[in-house]
Amino acid sequence: MDPHLLRHHARVRHEDKSMCWRYYDEKELIELENPLELYIVDISAGGVGVKSFSSISKGNILIFDLPFGLSTYKVMGKVMWVDKRENCYRGGLEFVSLPFSLKESLIELSKLGEEAPLVESY
């Protein structure tokens, strides 16, 4: 079975944009001159689905600000899978580090299940 089809947490749609200025490639921290734009597609307590017009590599750990509700959180996510699409890359990031308050909010949101509404940031 395809590893990115194995889910541990319920996902909800969450559309937003984030910038990644730093990432770990194996154990080396890479600082970017131009940020990697990430388009958040969905979110769960375990991670986020993203889309990018720049290449992202499986295994890298991205450090980025995640807008959620009225707050923005600093998170780290490991790229677990990447699919090259016609004009973009689609990937799944597993959270490596995220604030406890965000994790709690995501767990509560996941209890709403598949019927959860789109979460928008303001």
How would you describe what is shown here?
- Helices cover 9% and strands 55% of the residues.
- The protein contains one helix and six strands.
- It is globular, with a radius of gyration of 14 Å.
- With 122 residues, it is mainly β.
- The chain has one domain (3-114): predicted glycosyltransferase like domains (Thrombin, subunit H, Beta Barrel), CATH 2.40.10.
Concise description?
The chain is built from 1 helix and 6 strands. It is mainly β and 122 residues long. Strand 4 and strand 5 (71-84) form a beta hairpin.
What labels would you give this structure?
single chain, 122 residues, mainly beta, Thrombin, subunit H, six-stranded antiparallel β-barrel, cyclic-di-GMP binding, PilZ_domain, PilZ domain-containing protein
Ends: how far apart? 38 Å
CATH superfamily: predicted glycosyltransferase like domains
Strand content: over 45%
Q: List SSEs in N-to-C order.
A: EEEEEEH
Overall CATH class = Mainly Beta
The tally of structural domains comes to: 1
